[in-house]
């Protein structure tokens, strides 16, 4: 199968080694190589590679273009767009890896694209490219948020700098979402499909444990995929999980209870364990480190360790609780119904009289609605059981609830006049809060009337 | 100032030396101080006391945080093993955000001392964008190290580091790559073995101190920024041993709310839960308030204000201590006799040095007057006439007050031990509640106290014994004579209880019939049922003879009751309590829990209160027509409904103002709107709008809407 990777201009042996590193991606690698042509030939100006996370995009590029000692080692610059908080950083990294730090220091304070092109040309005339230079841009989707001219310029950089250069963009998003509305040079598109289950099995089986046979590891991977394939196809994550749980899988073997060939028993041993891993360590409810510790502990003790989401209890000052309750009521009750809930002599008004057409659906399904500060305070004063002076600290509590993200401010920060808020807590949370202050919130909610 | 120069120009006048002299703290304290003659002594006392309190609280804070900080430190030490994930400590600190600063302060100090010199902490408000976050992290990490650099390194790095500050502003080198290079040079220099870095990873871990980044307030961070930052960091984790600490105020699930799985899978998150703030407060009260160590005390109401601010508003222990500081300062500032509020020896000394005026002040004290009234005729005369005699008596009184404090707190603790486990907590769960009750009035007259005692009289034997033993333990550490006596008595009782065991065996039949209802009682927590059994028990008690255990139990509880009655009287009953007790709860409330709206309304409706101009004085609460325009406009707008017609308002205003100008009500010009009045009115209205009483509305033209409700 490695025979697929053949290309003139590169050493046969080197290609062979590269191919070994790229299981299940031979087709894509071959295509890429043929696009690149021979090292000294001009290549296509820009290539756009897309595919889901952990589908081997960066891996293939690193193996072919450079980065690893085993790869073809062509002149290249790798830039992660997430790291480039400014374009200057991007330009600098490119110049640095092609021409050394002298060139990078030539960049002016806040360089524009033309500065970059100028310096590149200047440097290029001193050291012209003997082989195609490659710029690899990871997470290219972030380029859309930078200056509007950057992406179109990068796509035809070959023309601009008049050098043998190719820009390779890597992204998880399809090209259609990139195309600027002013139009641009169309790059060559190369799609990396997801690995199939078989391919995952093949790749994962490669990193087997040296002290156990390849078949055993392969059967372990089979079991692992049986549990996790339905929720997770991310190769990296699967590899992580495989490494974490392998010791548990081998436990009966080490104790001598089971032979390597007895897959059924091994499966019975590991399956509940993996299921548990799916609910905890996969969701990062417990950290990998804690998971490893848990494996060493006895079954009883592990019950004590609770996941992150188990801790939802939040202690709040007394009035903050009522402010939050008032905010919840204001967010989920229509303003018209306030009279019904908070006025003493509201008369008998049935829910049916209240109903408007659009309110037949539950307010809880629609999510919280914004409310002005006045309404929040009015409800607060009628809900809280004692007389509260409108002190400064009541108001500061509202803003601290906002910083704690229990409320969100809808209007802009600058708007001092009648700010608007939304309540950002769940029903369960508010029920727990109101229970601590003996307030029956359900009685005040329009949806549960 | 003038110059003799004729030419034009700028002249610099240096301020003269006199003006330059800044007021020292003492001067501020003395300024406007009640009884200025001994103010400096008082200031010194106050400052000493505050320094002591502050030092104590800091020690306390450190002790409380020690456990969690230790486990965090362990975590940072052992966490550099997982290569693919960034070790992250989620530190849940509770919603009392003002207190967190101190915790983070000591945390980063500890980290720097014992784990790694590379610690940077960032706050959300300074990191609006990824660029800024990056810049802050780099600046803090590199700068802190640069300052401790030795000479040789500076030679190598000076250029780089000096440039970094320049370049950071240029934000060209503002990437983690720079940090990586910096870190490598740093560790190479410190270990002295360049080139051998990758050879022995196990050793490297110890030599390579982690780079810790503390996010002080995770909730407030922009999730986008945080995600990008984590993504970047995870690219460098193999080269740079990074570590995060997330300060979380609400619940750890916020992490999952903020970070998607793709990002949180890069982290190895471990949870650390800190002490709850109520527990923290309980310790602070225990160590600062419920101790005779500090002569300064708060009376019931002032205490209540501070505690309710804590419970109702902010949960912040730091603010609570600030409140105590305020009360302390106010006490020494406003009470001239506070010169006696210090240790016994000093107080006695100060007593002898009191001036005649201060002695008069003592005579004016309410508690002293009561004391005098109780004395015999001759003694009364002596006390009121003879300063020296009074000083002697007062020295004795000060000693008494000291003794009172020495006995009060142990007995309070005993009573709390006994009552804190009773069903429904008749005297409160926390000792502070009991303390408040005792400060208020005679606790034994309290109804809840009676119930508590009744419940105690129904306790089973082993429970009672353990409680009494715990009481004995509290009393053991007290040095006062009376408490030692009490301890002896208590221990005698305890031995009697133990002897009972042997006695019971001789007469088991009698015992059984009595203990059965008692045993039932243990299960019941319902008050109604308790009362029912209580009545039943009363009846049985009447009908049957008491068992030896019950006799003994009654004896023990009578003893406790006796202790309470003799030592837990409220401080107001003590003579000279005003010296130590700060009682102005209104001042504390006004300063700590301000009511801006009430003050604005007070200013508008009774301007005399602030302006102190006699013309503005009115009797019936109405506003004089000579008041400032805004007050008149405010008063008039109170008479309106939700919507105010501007023209009517203007007319009314013009009438009032004309009357103030003394125009003849019958003349044609009376109440006419001229330009000046119009302008003044408009100004008043816009001022009211600025204060938030009205706003423009689109419902009706030439109307404004009122934003407050209620009228005159």
TrEMBL record, chain A:
Keyword Ligase: no
Domain Orc1-like AAA ATPase: residue ranges: 21-168
GO molecular function: ATP binding; DNA replication origin binding
Subcellular location: Nucleus
Origin recognition complex subunit 5 C-terminal domain location: 316-445
Keyword Methyltransferase in record: no
Main location: nucleus
Domain ORC5 lid: 217-284
A Pfam family it matches: ORC5_C
Superkingdom of source: Eukaryota
GO-annotated biological processes: DNA replication initiation
InterPro entries from the UniProt entry: AAA_16 (IPR041664), ORC5 (IPR020796), ORC5_C (IPR047088), ORC5_lid (IPR048866), P-loop_NTPase (IPR027417)
Cellular component GO terms held in the UniProt record: nuclear origin of replication recognition complex
Family, as annotated: Belongs to the ORC5 family.
UniProt function note: Component of the origin recognition complex (ORC) that binds origins of replication. DNA-binding is ATP-dependent. The specific DNA sequences that define origins of replication have not been identified yet. ORC is required to assemble the pre-replication complex necessary to initiate DNA replication.
Description of how the protein assembles with itself and partners: Component of ORC, a complex composed of at least 6 subunits: ORC1, ORC2, ORC3, ORC4, ORC5 and ORC6. ORC is regulated in a cell-cycle dependent manner. It is sequentially assembled at the exit from anaphase of mitosis and disassembled as cells enter S phase.
Protein name as annotated: Origin recognition complex subunit 5
Lineage start: Eukaryota, Metazoa, Chordata, Craniata, Vertebrata
Recorded name of the encoding gene: ORC5
Automatic annotation (TrEMBL), chain B:
Keyword RNA-binding: no
Origin recognition complex subunit 3 winged helix C-terminal domain ranges (all copies): 597-709
Residues of the Origin recognition complex subunit 3 N-terminal domain: 1-340
A GO biological process held by the record: DNA replication initiation
Residue span(s) of domain Origin recognition complex subunit 3 insertion: 352-584
Compartments (UniProt record): Nucleus
Molecular function as annotated in GO: DNA replication origin binding
Domain of life: Eukaryota
Major location (coarse): nucleus
Record's keyword annotation contains Transmembrane: no
InterPro entries in the cross-refs: ORC3, ORC3_ins, ORC3_N, ORC_WH_C
Cellular component terms (Gene Ontology): DNA replication preinitiation complex; nuclear origin of replication recognition complex; nuclear pre-replicative complex
Role: Component of the origin recognition complex (ORC) that binds origins of replication. DNA-binding is ATP-dependent. The specific DNA sequences that define origins of replication have not been identified yet. ORC is required to assemble the pre-replication complex necessary to initiate DNA replication. Binds histone H3 and H4 trimethylation marks H3K9me3, H3K27me3 and H4K20me3.
Family of the protein in this entry: Belongs to the ORC3 family.
Known partners and oligomeric status: Component of ORC, a complex composed of at least 6 subunits: ORC1, ORC2, ORC3, ORC4, ORC5 and ORC6. ORC is regulated in a cell-cycle dependent manner. It is sequentially assembled at the exit from anaphase of mitosis and disassembled as cells enter S phase.
Protein name: Origin recognition complex subunit 3
Species of provenance: Lates calcarifer (Barramundi)
């Amino acid at each position: 199968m490695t025979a697929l990777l053949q290309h003139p201009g590169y050493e046969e042996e080197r290609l062979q080694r590269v191919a070994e590193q790229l299981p299940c991606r031979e087709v894509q690698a071959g295509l890429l190589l043929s696009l690149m042509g021979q090292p000294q030939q001009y290549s296509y100006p820009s290539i756009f590679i897309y595919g889901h996370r952990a589908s081997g995009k960066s891996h293939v590029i690193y193996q072919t273009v450079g980065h690893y000692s085993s790869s073809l080692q062509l002149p290249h610059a790798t830039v992660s767009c997430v790291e480039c908080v400014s374009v200057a950083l991007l330009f600098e990294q490119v110049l640095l890896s092609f021409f050394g730090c002298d060139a990078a220091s030539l960049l002016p304070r806040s360089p524009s694209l033309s500065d970059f092109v100028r310096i590149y040309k200047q440097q290029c005339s001193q050291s012209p490219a003997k082989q195609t230079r490659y710029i690899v841009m990871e997470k290219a989707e972030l380029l859309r948020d930078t200056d509007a001219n950057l992406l179109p310029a990068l796509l035809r950089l070959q023309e601009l700098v008049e050098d043998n250069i190719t820009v390779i963009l890597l992204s998880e998003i399809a090209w259609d979402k990139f195309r600027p509305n002013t139009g641009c040079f169309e790059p060559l598109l190369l799609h990396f499909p997801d690995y199939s289950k078989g391919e995952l099995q093949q790749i994962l089986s490669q990193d087997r444990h040296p002290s156990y046979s390849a078949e055993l590891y392969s059967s372990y991977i089979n079991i692992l995929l049986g549990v996790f394939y339905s929720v997770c196809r991310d190769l990296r994550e699967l590899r992580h999980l495989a490494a974490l749980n392998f010791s548990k899988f081998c436990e009966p073997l080490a104790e001598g209870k089971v032979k390597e060939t007895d897959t059924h028993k091994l499966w019975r041993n590991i399956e509940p364990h993996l299921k548990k891993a799916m609910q905890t360590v996969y969701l990062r409810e417990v950290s990998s480190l804690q998971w490893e510790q848990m494996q060493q502990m006895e079954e009883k003790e592990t019950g004590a360790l609770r996941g992150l989401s188990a801790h939802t209890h939040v202690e709040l000052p007394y009035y903050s609780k009522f402010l939050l309750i008032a905010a919840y009521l204001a967010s989920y009750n229509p303003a018209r119904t306030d009279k019904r809930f908070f006025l003493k002599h509201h008369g008998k008004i049935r829910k049916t009289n209240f109903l408007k057409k659009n309110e037949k659906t539950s307010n809880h399904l629609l999510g919280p609605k914004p409310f002005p500060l006045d309404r929040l305070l009015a409800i607060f004063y009628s809900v809280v059981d004692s007389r509260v002076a409108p002190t400064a600290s009541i108001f500061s509590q509202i803003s601290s609830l906002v910083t704690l993200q229990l409320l969100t401010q809808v209007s802009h920060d600058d708007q001092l006049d009648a700010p608007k808020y939304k309540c950002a807590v769940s029903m369960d949370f508010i029920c727990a809060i109101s229970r601590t202050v003996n307030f029956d919130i359900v009685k005040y909610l329009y949806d549960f009337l | 100032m003038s110059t003799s120069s004729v030419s034009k120009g700028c002249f610099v006048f240096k301020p003269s030396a006199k003006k330059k002299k800044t007021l020292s703290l003492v001067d501020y304290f003395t300024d406007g101080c009640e009884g200025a003659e001994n103010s400096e002594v008082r200031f010194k006392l106050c400052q000493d006391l505050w320094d002591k309190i502050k030092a104590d609280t800091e020690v306390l804070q450190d002790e409380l945080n020690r456990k969690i900080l230790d486990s965090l430190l362990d975590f940072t030490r052992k966490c550099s093993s997982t290569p693919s994930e960034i070790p992250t400590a989620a530190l849940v600190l509770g919603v009392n955000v003002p207190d967190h600063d101190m915790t983070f302060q000591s945390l980063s100090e500890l980290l720097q001392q014992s784990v790694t010199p590379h610690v940077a902490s960032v706050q959300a408000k300074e990191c609006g964008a990824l660029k800024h976050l990056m810049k802050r992290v780099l600046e803090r990490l590199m700068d802190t190290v640069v300052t401790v650099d030795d000479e040789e390194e500076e030679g190598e790095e000076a250029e780089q580091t000096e440039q970094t500050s320049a370049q950071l502003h240029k934000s060209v080198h503002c990437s983690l790559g720079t940090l990586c290079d910096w870190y490598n040079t740093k560790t190479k220099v410190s270990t002295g073995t360049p080139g051998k870095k990758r050879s022995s990873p196990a050793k490297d871990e110890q030599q390579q101190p982690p780079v810790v980044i503390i996010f002080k307030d995770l909730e407030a961070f922009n999730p986008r920024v945080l995600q990008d930052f984590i993504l970047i960091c995870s690219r460098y984790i193999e080269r740079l041993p990074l570590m995060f600490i997330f300060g979380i105020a609400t619940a750890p699930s916020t992490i999952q709310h903020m970070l998607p799985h793709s990002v949180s899978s890069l982290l190895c998150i471990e949870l650390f839960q800190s002490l709850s703030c109520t527990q923290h407060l309980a310790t602070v009260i225990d160590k600062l308030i419920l101790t005779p160590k500090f002569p300064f005390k708060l009376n019931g109401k002032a205490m209540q204000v501070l505690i309710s601010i804590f419970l109702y508003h902010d949960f912040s222990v730091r603010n609570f201590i600030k409140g105590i500081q305020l009360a302390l300062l106010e006490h020494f500032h406003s009470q001239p006799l506070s010169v006696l509020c210090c240790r016994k020896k000093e107080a006695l000394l100060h007593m002898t040095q009191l001036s005649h005026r201060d002695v008069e002040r003592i005579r004016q004290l309410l508690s002293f007057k009561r004391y005098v009234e109780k004395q015999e005729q001759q003694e009364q005369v002596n006390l009121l006439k003879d300063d020296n005699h009074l000083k002697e008596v007062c020295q004795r009184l000060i000693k008494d007050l000291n003794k009172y404090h020495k006995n009060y707190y142990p007995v309070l603790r005993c009573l709390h031990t006994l009552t804190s486990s009773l069903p429904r907590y008749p005297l409160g769960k926390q000792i502070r509640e009991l303390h408040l009750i005792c400060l208020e009035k005679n606790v034994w007259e309290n109804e809840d106290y009676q119930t508590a005692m009744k419940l105690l009289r129904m306790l089973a034997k082993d429970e009672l014994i353990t409680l009494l033993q715990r009481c004995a333990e509290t009393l053991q550490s007290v040095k006062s004579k009376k408490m030692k006596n009490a301890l002896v008595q208590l221990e005698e009782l305890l031995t009697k209880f133990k002897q009972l065991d042997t006695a019971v065996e001789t007469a088991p039949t009698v015992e059984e019939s009595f203990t059965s209802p008692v045993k039932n009682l243990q299960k019941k927590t319902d008050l109604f049922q308790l009362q029912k059994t209580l009545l039943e028990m009363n009846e049985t008690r009447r009908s049957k003879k008491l068992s030896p255990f019950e006799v003994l139990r009654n004896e023990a509880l009578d003893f406790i009751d006796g202790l309470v009655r003799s030592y837990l009287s409220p401080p107001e009953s003590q003579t000279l309590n005003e010296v130590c007790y700060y009682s102005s709860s209104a001042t504390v409330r006004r300063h700590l829990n301000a009511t801006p709206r009430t003050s604005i309304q007070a200013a508008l409706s009774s301007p005399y209160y602030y302006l102190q101009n006699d013309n503005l004085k009115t009797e019936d609460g109405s506003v004089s027509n000579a008041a400032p325009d805004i007050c008149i406009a405010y008063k008039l707008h109170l008479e309106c409904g939700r919507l105010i017609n501007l023209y009517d308002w203007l007319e009314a205003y013009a009438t009032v103002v004309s009357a103030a100008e003394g125009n003849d009500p019958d003349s044609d010009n009376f109440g006419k709107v001229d330009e000046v009045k119009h302008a003044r009115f408009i100004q008043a209205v816009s001022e009211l709008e600025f204060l938030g009483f009205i706003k423009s509305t689109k419902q009706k033209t030439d109307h404004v809407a009122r934003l407050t409700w209620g009228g005159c």
